Amino acid sequence: MPAPQPADGDVYVTPRYLAGSSGTGDAGFAPVTHWPHHHLDEGPHQLVVTSPDHRIRIGWAGDDYDRWMISAAPDAVSAARWTAIANQSTPAELVGALTAQLAQDWAEGEDRFLAAPSIYWTAGVKPLLDAGWAQHRSRGFIHLASPDGQAGVDIDLLQRREEFVTLWAGPDGWGTRAEITFTTQAPAHLIAATAQAFTDPAPVARWHQHLSAELAAQAQLTPVTPPAPTPRDIRPRITNRRPSTAASVPRWSTTTPSAPPPARPAARR
Q: Which domain of life is it from (predicted)?
C-alpha cells in the first residue's frame, strides 16, 4: 500500500467551501490528469485540458478573476452548449467534483455531459435540499442558504440572464467570495455533482498564512499533525549511527587495571 501523501498545508479548513483557493489547480485537474494537456502562450488561459475527442474543455487562467472555464460541445469545433465558470476564490476541490463527473460521463460514452437541462430547478440542487439548506424566493429567483449562512445558491427561474445557477460561499468581496456559475443549458446532474461537494464534511488543507483572514474567522481551523514515523523511517537512523569511539571492554573484565606482578629476586653470584 502506498504511503499517504503529506498534507499541503499547516491547517485543515472546515467547511471546505470556506477554504478559498490554494493558488494551484491541482485538485480540480486531478480527475482528468490522463486527458490531453495544452499549454498556451497566448490568450486568457495558460492551460487547457480537453477530453480525448476535444468536446469537453477545461480552461485554467491562473491570473484572472474567472480562473476556471469549463464547457462541453457536440463536437470538437462547435460552440459550447453550456459553460461553467469558477472564480479565483473558489476552492479547487469544488471544481474537482465537476471535473470528476465529466470524466466519468465521457468514459461511459453516453454523452450525459450534453444532456438536456431539467425542467425542475430542484434537480440540480437536490444534495443541498437533502442537507437541509433553507430556501426562499425573491422576484423570479430561488435562493438556498447553508445552515451556517456562509454558502448559498441563486437560481434564475425566469432565465433572464446567461447565468442560470450560481453557487457561492464566503463573505462578499473580491478575495473572499467563491462563485461557480452554470449557464442555462447545463445538465442538472453536473450541477448536482458540484453542489454535493459543498456538503462534503471532509476538511481541506491550506497554509494559514495564505488563508484570507475573513475566511479564517468564519471557518474552523485544525492544525495539521505531522504523521508519526514508521519503522521504515526509523531504520535508516539506526543503521546510520556512528560506532562508539570508546574502547570496548570484554564482559568478563573490569575497567580497573590489575595489580602488577611481584618483582623477581635478583640472581645470586
A: Bacteria
